[in-house]
Amino acid sequence: VVRFARSFQRHPKNRSSTQTMLEARKAGLAPAEFDEDGKEINPYIRQYISSAPWYLNAERPSLKHQRKWRSDPNYTKSWYDRGAKIFQAEKYRKGACENCGAMTHDAKSCIERPRKKRAKWTNMHIATDEKIETFEQDYDGKRDRGNGYDASTYARVIERNLCTWEDTVKYLLNLDVNSAYYDPKTRSILCDDPLPDADPNELYGGDNQYRMSGQALEFKQLNIHAWEAFDKGQDIICRLLHPKLNSSSGIIRS
């Protein structure tokens, strides 16, 4: 029947009549064509889509060959319950692991430390059987790197890391909590001193106050002296720390 229909369409006269009928269906002058299930076929569907392959032996036009004929299995999004135990025997069972006595694996796959006296011979301290699960997954599920990801575990880690931000930062140590000296919206510090009546030695002035006072200034002058001497041609080996500060860090040769 299909071969006859194709030879019928190959003839010029029959082809022109088929084309005329198709144009009439598109214009709404002729009734639409029905498939095997009694449903109307859209006349605007291309012929290479509506025509069925020859090996299907289709007697009438149909779109059944375009439908998905394979049903997806019932894929699950659950994951393995790691570390779960189901049953613990009191005596060794035939076919169980010779080392620990669990029924869910053999001695070659046992991850327990090899016992000096195995459970098969002592019949004591039988290990608990593991929970064995099998999941049916599709192509993407087998290659999904996020399988088994637990968001609640990650949330606990984030909560633990956020605790470190509760420490007071250095530039807020000299500020009164109830004052408006620090503006959190612009994250700026005003020019006025929030505690003008307090002792200046007890306030935090930043890390630069240690760089510009005490032995830091002496160390800076010694470095400048070493650089100037090196520029004048003297044989100087300086390790950025003067021998007076650290005797093993540098040597000055005159």
Automatic annotation (TrEMBL):
The keyword Nucleotide-binding does not apply. The keyword Nucleus applies. It holds the Pfam family Slu7. InterPro entries: Slu7_dom, Splicing_factor_SLU7. Residues 156-236 form the Pre-mRNA-splicing factor SLU7 domain. One of its GO terms (cellular component) is spliceosomal complex. Keywords: mRNA processing, mRNA splicing, Nucleus, Spliceosome. It comes from the Eukaryota. GO terms for molecular function: pre-mRNA 3'-splice site binding. GO terms for biological process: mRNA splicing, via spliceosome. It is found in: Nucleus. Belongs to the SLU7 family. PANTHER family: PRE-MRNA-SPLICING FACTOR SLU7 (PTHR12942:SF2), STEP II SPLICING FACTOR SLU7 (PTHR12942). Involved in pre-mRNA splicing. Associated with the spliceosome. This is Pre-mRNA-splicing factor SLU7.
